[in-house]
């Protein structure tokens, strides 16, 4: 599809110009379809003579607005298209009374970061994508304090998922969990003393995220369980996107042999989230 090709070209061009050799597989647009069904005003496109030149896509939960994607074809960048698309997409936030604006972008993308700062969306939390060949990763033993149980694929999203999100992020994501449970991801629940205290999703490509744990639960212990599950997928690589504030998780990841592949950053109009207890899935889903 044209939008996917623009994403691939724009990301490859940005990484090449900054000496980043990471490649990330394209994912089916399940999440984009869900958000488009809920509110079509979050999607804008830029065209010239019937040819797609760029697009922007945002989603909202309550009064929280998140810019999931804004990509311009490399051949037409620096012509004001990004500014125009961002302004149009922010109309969704204004119309629905958003009290916070947020996004995730590549930390080395100076042009886009400057654009967002001019709109009052500021860098808040560093993120680091770590990855390694699965066979080289040496994880510690599974922590005895946590039990991991699979969640039913395609079944109804348990209410406790939204409760943990509300504790960690400040809002529930029930519809988003329902979508994830229907996409074939491995969905894990973390149980302590018979009660759910966290969750994680693991893709067939060995990527961990999103992952969240309730207060009083060790994020590093949850990360060990999730990465063991990622290794069990038989994927060639395992990967995870860890916040800078999650020191124990970062220490475990590096000791296990994963290496820093790419820096990203969370930007927001005002601070939100407990980033020592949440691992984003990717820049679009958060």
From TrEMBL:
One Pfam family from the record: Acetyltransf_1
InterPro entries (alphabetical): Acyl_CoA_acyltransferase, GNAT_dom
Residues in N-acetyltransferase domain copies: 2-149
Residues that span the membrane, as ranges: none
CDD domains: NAT_SF
Lineage top rank: taxon: Bacteria
Molecular function GO labels: acyltransferase activity, transferring groups other than amino-acyl groups
Name this protein carries in UniProt: GNAT family N-acetyltransferase
Organism: Neoroseomonas oryzicola
